[in-house]
Amino acid sequence: MKGNSILNKAKYSENTDEWYTTYSTVEEEIAHYTSQFYGKTVLCNCDDPYESAFSKYFLKNFNILKLKKLICTSYKGSRILENTKLRDADNCIVNNQFAYVMIAKENFDNSKGIISDENIKKFLMKKGTVNKLKGDGDFRSDECIEYLKEADIVVTNPPFSKFIDLFSLLVKYEKKYLLIGNQNAITYKEIFPYIKNGKAWIGCKFGDMAFKVPDDTPPRKTRFWIDENGQKWRSLGNAMWLTNLDNQRKHQKLELTAVYEPAKYPKYDDFDAINVSRVKDIPKDYSGIMGVPLTYLKYHNEEQFEIIGEANHGSDNEFDLFKPKIEGKDIFKRILIKAKDYGKDGI
Ligand SMILES: C[S@@+](CC[C@H](N)C(=O)[O-])C[C@H]1O[C@@H](n2cnc3c(N)ncnc32)[C@H](O)[C@@H]1O
């Protein structure tokens, strides 16, 4: 059916479930949290032990991060499995017909500092390092939840289509996490209340991210390229890290220079708040509610501003307060904030 195939194509081209993170994306973000990993058990629960940048990063930096344990579980049917020579505990070549678990414990490598690629390879090749899971490796399965219970911090780039499921599981088991997601997830009803209440926040990288994609990814005009090794890439302009690990970013004060002028900051038709088009236009001297773009969250410091809610459809969740319109014209979704320490000299 013509209609359906167009729909499926559109769906496929937007399917970010098989986008693979680069080593530098992981390395640059974790650099902001290193001391919070000391003595901790880390779980990467959407990550095969052979190709995932998360597995590689935590294995290489195991001693630097003073980890207690690293657990990586993969999902049956991984799309990036290359010709691996890894063998599991049954001496079978690792392949994508199974899901696996790889566990590295304290002193798995006695070298100091960064562990070499050579040593990592030796460790992975050792019979018994990588073992079959009973099921398909779904992070929601009982055996994967047992690993989750053991973990202190979960770090991964989950399939975006299951982002809410993973987030909800982490909340249920009260885990710390660092997750790559699409910024659209911020306004999901299952997630926004946590951001509003200061229980989850944006990590350090918020914006452009490049990902390796499977060979059968169709080319497109923008945000797609093939590198000199024939590897296909896509990039996302609105990627983010979502976390509940403390970071310096959330304690930095947003420097404000703009001054409130009623003509420059119109109020919404159905709500007593002013519309602010860009983060740099947030006035330093307005004490009421302001609707700011989603990108504001990259600078949010809860000591400086309170998040009152959001203005999206007016019905997405208990904090989605109204549909933003000015003189009948729809405005893109907004985060509603109010200065906390507003005084006579402004914020
Ligand atoms: C966006 S990719 C990212 C892979 C890897 N974390 C990375 O960043 O390179 C998501 C991965 O999750 C796997 N996956 C899909 N559904 C899953 C599930 N229910 N449980 C665990 N993993 C899943 C996919 O096979 C894919 O490898």
Describe the structure using short key phrases.
347 residues; alpha+beta; Rossmann fold; ten-stranded mixed sheet; four-stranded mixed sheet; 7 helices; 16 strands; disordered N terminus; binds S-adenosylmethionine
Please give a structural write-up.
This protein has 347 residues and is an alpha+beta fold. Helix content is 18%, strand content 23%. It is built from seven helices and 16 strands. The protein starts with a helix and ends in an 8-residue tail after the last strand. Bound molecules: S-adenosylmethionine. S-adenosylmethionine binds at residues 17-21, 46-47, 52-54, 75, 78, 137-139, 156-159, 162.
Mean pLDDT: 92
Radius of gyration, in Å, reads 23 Å
Query: Can you give the helix content as a percent range?
Result: 10-25%
Please summarize the sheet with the most strands: 10 strands, mixed
- Compounds present? S-adenosylmethionine
CATH topology group of the largest domain:
Rossmann fold
Distance between the termini: 58 Å
Look at the helices and sheets and give the structural class.
Answer: alpha+beta
Counting DSSP E segments of at least 2 residues, the number of strands comes to 16
- Element-by-element helix/strand order: HEHEHEEHEHEHEHEEEEEEEEE
Bin the strand percentage: 15-25%
C-alpha geometry: elongated
Proper CATH architecture of the largest domain: 3-Layer(aba) Sandwich
Helical segment count:
7
Identify the CATH class of the largest domain. Alpha Beta
